[in-house]
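Why do we care about 3D structure at all? Because function follows from shape, and shape follows, mostly, from sequence. That is the central idea of this module. The next example makes it concrete: a single protein chain, its amino acid sequence, and then its structure expressed as tokens.
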Amino acid sequence: MITVCNDSHSDFILLGFSEKPYLEKILFWVVLIFYCLTLAGNMVIILVSSKDPKLHIPMYFFLCNLSLLDLSFTSSCVPQMLVNFWGPEKTISYIGCAFQLYVFLWLGATECVLLVVMAMDRYVAVCHPLQYTAIMHPKFCLQLAILAWGAGLVQSLVQSPATLQLPFCSHRRVDDIVCEVPALIQASSADTTYNEIQMSIASIIFLVLPLVIILSSYGAVAKAVLRIKSAAGQRKAFSTCTSHLLVVSLFYGTVTAVYLQPKNRYAQEQGKFLTLFYTVATPALNPLIYTLRNREVKGALGRCLGKGKGFHYRNYSMEKI
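And the structure:
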């Protein structure tokens, strides 16, 4: 049976949690609170890291990139999400959906690569502290940041057009809270084998491979730390990596579940909550994870507010995190 579809450039309907309107009202306020925390927390990190000379080091340069990425990532989808949660209208224009998909894929893939870069920075800091400044010099750090943003952009420019060119049925219902690849593929009336293969390859390149590299780098870090005879030295070395590992766990734990899980009704429902977590909760938690246990950021924030007393900054390849 051949399914005839209407104009491919008409509006989409993001179903979200429309069958549970009471839940959407609760989620509206939860998402709004987390979005405000995301804006405030990440803007503070960017401003403090750029203003305080003591934070002009590779780790905080990459952290600024992560904060800028999180600000853009959430702003590309949360406003539309709030509109859909609040009222009965669940529509999003074709242009709006396309923009959301392009930005979503670009920044999502960029974050995967950027987390690898940050893991490499921690590896060099712990395993090669004497060569840290020579290896992680400003020009190289800038090149790594450009690589992360560029790789994400290439991924988006390859996969987004292939997804948007799919024919969609006349009802154009997308069973998700945002326009992302798995949900759009399921909404299509055509054979999506090519798109699914493309998504699988992209998942291996931007999810599986980076995760393997990150875990391998921290395996090397663990071996290096265990060779340190001082217990205090071991704790200090491990502390330089715990914040980043927690961020990696939160991001990859949810994204891989969405893009690599089997496609069925239960997985689709579960995927909406996972998508909600990595688009709303994770960007809000990242600033808290990096600042609550970070003496340098708290000290810099205190100085910016005129309340800090300052401290002696030592060996930034092994700073306390």
